[in-house]
Structures are given as structure tokens and as C-alpha cells.
Amino acid sequence: MQTFGDPTIWLPFIFAALMGASILIYVVLDGFDLGVGVLFPFADDEEKDRMIASIGPFWDANETWLVLAVGLLLVAFPAAHGEILTALYLPVAIMLIGLILRGVAFEFRAKAPAPQKDLWNNLFFAGSLMTSLSQGFMLGMYVMGLDWTWAHVGFGLLTALFLTVGYSFIGATWVIHKTENALQHKAVAWAKGGIWGLVLGIGAISLATPFVSDRIFDKWFSLPTALYLAPLPIASTALIVWLWSMLRKMPYPQDRMSWKPFAVATVLWVTAFGGMAYSFYPYVVPEKLTIYESASAPESLFIILIGTCFVLPAILGYTILAYTIFRGKAGELRYD
After folding, report:
1. What angle do CA 94, 97, 99 make, to 5 degrees?
2. Cα(233)–Cα(207) distance, rounded to whole angstroms?
3. Where does residue 314 rank: exposed (0-12), middle (13-18), buried (19+ CB within 10 A)?
4. Helix 78-87 / helix 89-111 crossing angle, nearest 10 deg
5. Which helix or strand (DSSP H or E) is residue 289 part of?
6. 66-115 tens-digit pLDDT
7. What is the Cα 109 distance to its own chain's centre?
8. Is the pTM above the cut of 0.85?
9. Region class of 16: left (phi > 0), else alpha (psi between -120 and 50), else beta
10. 129: closest CA among 41, 22, 25, 26?
């Protein structure tokens, strides 16, 4: 009988946890700066500059977590990497094009002649929108088991829309925290509208996931497990109510606690991700490949783990350092 002391058990579990944590950090961190890009059409030129200034020191570091997650999937679970990337080749290609557009537009909008600035602003929005929609579509297809049917594609399009609105919501909470005055008031209004897309997205995923397989249904609704898991949806509901209550009262006098909506939104994303991770464990490809079946040889995983022990703290330290140095309100956008 295999136990957790067996390297064929604990090594795949550790790498699955590391990959899951990387995806979660990416979704929260790059989610807010993608959301800022999605909100571009609702801001004037001066506000766009301030919004760019609010994400400028962070967006490169945020995308590092996506590279880490995909890298861990490739080296630790190569069979799953091939299955997932083959099924999602088209949306992955669209996402990469969107990321390239964002990166180029981010730099060129500051260096292009004034008449061309609107072009690069629009391309920054287009890149953010393409990336958000493609990630939402991939999420929906993953939940449905990566099978291309009309029903699954329809669900993927639905989650594409909801995740994009969810990104715009967390992006709006970031703008609330990093800006002030008229733009902050505008961001509060954006967040009030975006929260409903986030709620619908979480609701759609939560309702669909148990019906993907009998195994997932039993994990959530069999007794006594259902009683143990009850605090998770209750906590999510409480967080949504708390967020809505905060947004109705914001901005607070003297701009107190402008960080709270972003912090609470982050906790909400964590609870939603935790519920999804619980649903699909131990599968890395839903109902097809488990983390143990698709894992690399223990000897390979152990060597990779040693490298990860050096790489992960460096990425984490760089991220923390960036957010520490550039804390506080976003200043005037300058490139001199």
C-alpha cells in the first residue's frame, strides 16, 4: 500500500500544490492589471496615464507567475501538459497574442507621437481583452473536461465573459487603492458594476462543476462531507455581502482603508479557487489523468524540486520587494 512517505505520492502532490499556488497568485496579480486594461475605454486620457502608473512597476513580475505555472506543468506533469495544451491550442495562441499586444502597447504608448497615443491605448485594451477572454474560455473548457462540444464551447464563452468582468472588478478595486479623487470615485462605480459579473462567474462554475462527474458530485453532497464543506460557500457569500457593503460607503473620509476592497476580493478569489481545487483533486486533466499518473519519474521530480527551491523564493522575493517599494498611491506617469 502506498503512503504519503512514498516519493511517487508526495512529490506529485507538492508539485501540484506549487502549480496551483502559482496559478492562484497569477490570477489575482495579473488579474488586476488585466482588469485595469479592460477598463481603459471608460477612462479619459489623464486617467489612463494614472491607471498605467498604478500597474507599471508590477505587471512584468505578475506575468512571471504564469511562466512558472506553465513551466511546472511541463516538467512535472508532461502528459497532462500535452493533453491540456493540445485541447486548448487556439485560446492559448489568442492569449499569447494578447499578452504580446499588451507588452508592446505598454511601452509604445509612452514613446509614440501624441496623435498615435490613442492607437496604442486601444491596442492595450484589445490585448487585455483578448487575454482575459481567452483565459476565461480555457477555464470553462477545463471545467467541462476539455472536450470540444457545442455545449462545452457555449459554457466556455460564458465563463470567458464572466472572468473578464471579474478581472475588471478586481482591477477596479486596485484602482480604488492606488488612486484618489475623481478617478477613485469612478473606480468605485466600476467595482459596483463588476462585482455582479464576478458573482455570476463564481456561481456558474460552482453550479456546473458538481455535474461534470459523479465523483465531484459525491465529494460535495455526500454526508458528512457536505457539512464539513458548508463553511466555504457561506464564507464566499459573506465576503460578497461585505464587499458590496464597503463599496456602497466608499471612498471613506481621508481615503482610509482604500486597500480593503482589493484585499477582500483577493480572499474571495482564494476561496473560489480552493473550492475548484478540491473538486478536481487528484485529477490534473479532469476525469482523465491524475497528478500521480501524469507525473514525471520521482528522480526527475526530486532534481526539479531542488531547482524550484532556489527559483521560487527568488520570484516571491522579487514580487514582495516590488509591492513594498512601490506601495502607496500612484504618482504622475513619467518616463524621464
Report:
1. 110
2. 12
3. exposed
4. 80
5. strand 289-290
6. 888 888 888 888 888 888 888 999 999 999 999 999 888 888 877 777 77
7. 25
8. yes
9. alpha
10. 41
Q: Which residue has the cell 486601444?
A: 122
Q: CB burial class (10 A; 0-12, 13-18, 19+) of residue 245?
A: exposed
**CB within 8 Å of 289: residues ≥ 6 apart:** 77, 79, 80, 83, 283
| Secondary structure of residue 284 in the 3-state scheme | strand
Radius of gyration over alpha carbons of the chain, in Å?
20
Smallest Cα–Cα separation from 58: which of 295, 335, 331, 324? Answer: 324
182 CB-near residues (< 8 Å, 6+ apart): 47
Classify 113 in phi/psi space as left (phi over 0), alpha (psi -120 to 50) or beta.
beta
Tell me the per-residue pLDDT of 238-252, one tens digit each, with 9 for 90 and over.
Answer: 988 898 888 888 777
Average pLDDT, the chain: 85
> Which residues fall within 8 angstroms of residue 196, CB to CB, at 6 or more apart?
165
CA distances from 324 to 52, 252, 327, 328 (A): 18, 23, 5, 9
Q: Is 290 helix (H, G, I), strand (E, B) or coil?
A: strand
Give the residue among 21, 35, 159, 19 at the shortest CA–CA distance from 88: 159
Domain ranges in the chain?
13-325
- What SS3 string covers 23-52? HHHHHHHHHHHHHHHHCHHHCCHHHHHHHH
